[in-house]
Amino acid sequence: MLLSYLAHRRACLDKRREREERIASLPRAYHEPLSPQEKRLLSQPISSIIHAVQTSSISPVDVLLAYGKRAIQAQAQTNCLTEVMIGEAEKWARTAIRSGPLAGVPVSLKDMIGVKGYDSSLGYSAFTNAPVPNDAPIVRLLHDAGAIPFVKTNVPLTLYSYETTNDVFGVTENPHKRGYSPGGSSGGESALLAFGGSRIGIGTDVAGSVRVPSHYSGVYAIKSSTQRFPKTGSTATVPGQEGVAGVQSPMAKTLEDLETFWRAVFQMKPWDYDHSVINLPWREVHLPLDRPIRWGVLWDDGVVAPSPACLRALKMVTDVLAKAWPPKSNSPRPYEGLQIASQLLFADGGKLFSKPFHTFETIPAGITTALRALRLPRFVKKIYAWYLRYIRRDPVYAGLVENFHEKTIQECYKLVAQREDYRVRWFTVWRSVQARGSSGDNGVDFILTVPNALPAVPHGGMRHGWKACGYAVLFNVLDYSAGVMPITRFRARNAIERDNYSMYNAEAMDGLPVGVQVVGRRLDEERVLEGMKLIHGLMADAGLTYQGIPL
Fold first, then answer.
1. Gap between the Cα atoms of 460 and 466, Å rounded
2. SS3 321
3. β-strand 148-153 against 81-84: which pairing, if any?
4. Distance separating alpha carbons of residues 329 and 322, to the nearest angstrom
5. Residue 245, burial from CB neighbour count under 10 angstroms (0-12, 13-18, 19+)
6. Does residue 313 contact residue 539 with C-beta atoms inside 8 Å?
7. In principle, which of 97, 271, 520, 549 could form an S-S bond with 279, CB 3.0–4.6 Å?
8. Residue of 168, 215, 169, 165 whose CA lies nearest to 190
């Protein structure tokens, strides 16, 4: 036990020292303040950078210097970085393919994405000092497209949390307000993007892990459906878990950058890099002009009602949409999706993601609670569920507690069958009817909802908040394309409202971003992007454009 703890502490200290030394050893230029020219460069969309590099108006090395400087500043303010690859990225920048669709664009990567010669430790001390032997397919694609991977970003231990903290790299701060989470598990990525240390990053999502960080930090993302975006070549905490399959997906500083990146990736034919990607080129999508666009609105998942701040953001969007197209509301119970997801995600009883833990390694608050619950005897959980259902009159929590245990293979098969039946019932939301002779085109075009019930939570908030992931994980269970975009910032409008918001500390949360989630059907990323662009335009027309962190 003592040896395990000592090995853990030594690994953590060594890894942090390595990160500090990599930053300190960079040329002096990286430690100087940003010049006016570099600030202008950082404020440009990546399409302008690509054009400038392709026409030799600017060097990829100069682009990397500007973003490297800002990333180091972001690290100092938020502790968002894990692997600092800037030194080697300078070599990549000098040989970058200047004709590629991402020529000269620095790209940040979530820590789990494999880059040859660098760790993918995921915050586990047991996984440090183990450089991966090969680049992940998405990294090879980026190099071939002329992009420059330059940093990797922090994650929570286990990846099962909306807070980003681990003993190896420490706690990542929300760039808008210290003391608050930037989200998770792609929290280091969202913090870096919001701070302006990158304009394009790649995260992963199995229960909201690119969408909730985008919501907490005020950036943009589209979670892809499975088989649409390269996925292989990454380290996982629960390898083989496919009941609720995870995906890699891009995140961006702006919606324009997000679209540019999606199009560039598909110009590179990602199915030629990764066997898991289907051959489905990017499609040009036009929203219907001959009829109103039908927006389905999920106001409440039946577990946690949206907080006033998040509900206000959702209403701001539905208000501008209602001026053109009235929203609709009708769907199967989202709570059932949370029940299915919670059992499939923890089907092994938490054994795989907890196996590498060292003695006294700090475990995220919510995961500690989950592991304790998983290890309770089933008869104890049955008794507690009976108490919740009949004494506390809380059938929702009872329904989650009573089935939260390690599953047999047969039980897993049954849950997958339930998931498929659930998907069939949700399909009617899109198609409206399933009858002979009917095309079933009277369903919704998009679903609109909150990404999470709360804005960014304070550190430690996932002790209870880990259970409230229904608005995000629902669309992993259904495998839908889902985008998140910032809408406004949290503001208490008056003293009366501030007092009534005190249950989640309105004064402390002042200034935090609040977003909405735009959901499309499976493999419908292009249409989701068009829906986000429509909302973005309508909000701008109404004078409600979201403003991020200035340089």
1. 11
2. helix
3. antiparallel
4. 13
5. middle
6. no
7. 271
8. 215
Q: Give the tens place of pLDDT for each residue, 242-277.
A: 999 999 999 999 999 999 999 999 999 999 999 999
Residue length of the chain:
551
Task: Report the alpha-carbon distance of residue 297 to residue 514 in Å, rounded.
Answer: 17
What is the DSSP annotation of 151-217?
EEE---TTS--SS-EETTTEEPPBTTBTTB---SSSHHHHHHHHHTS-SEEEEEESSSTTHHHHHHH
pLDDT at 494: 47
Between CA 52 and CA 355 the distance in angstroms is 48
The pair of three-digit structure tokens given for residue 320, joined into one six-digit string: 């501008």
At which residue do the structure tokens 């199967």 appear?
332
Dump pLDDT digits (tens) for 165-197: 999 999 999 999 999 999 999 999 999 999 999
Q: Give pLDDT tens digits for 327-368.
A: 666 679 999 999 999 999 999 999 999 999 999 999 998 899
Of the candidates 546, 531, 451, 532, which has an alpha carbon nearest to the alpha carbon of residue 490? Answer: 546
Task: Indicate the Cα dihedral angle 483, 484, 486, 488, nearest 10°.
Answer: 110
Query: What is the pTM for the complete model shown?
Result: 0.96
Strand, helix or coil for residue 504: helix
124 contacts: CB under 8 Å, gap ≥ 6: 157, 166, 168, 356, 357, 361
CB atoms within 10 A of CB 470: 26
d(CA 474, CA 339): 10
Report the C-alpha gap between 263 and 102 in whole angstroms. Answer: 10
- Judged by average pLDDT, the poorest of 79-88, 189-198, 455-464, 500-509 is 500-509
Beta-bridged to residue 449, according to DSSP, are 517
Which of these, 199, 206, 175, 167, lies nearest to 186 by C-alpha position?
A: 206
Q: Is 82 helix (H, G, I), strand (E, B) or coil?
A: strand
Name the token pair of 542.
């109404």
Contact 226, 274 (CB under 8 A): no
For residue 179, give the 3-state DSSP assignment.
Answer: coil
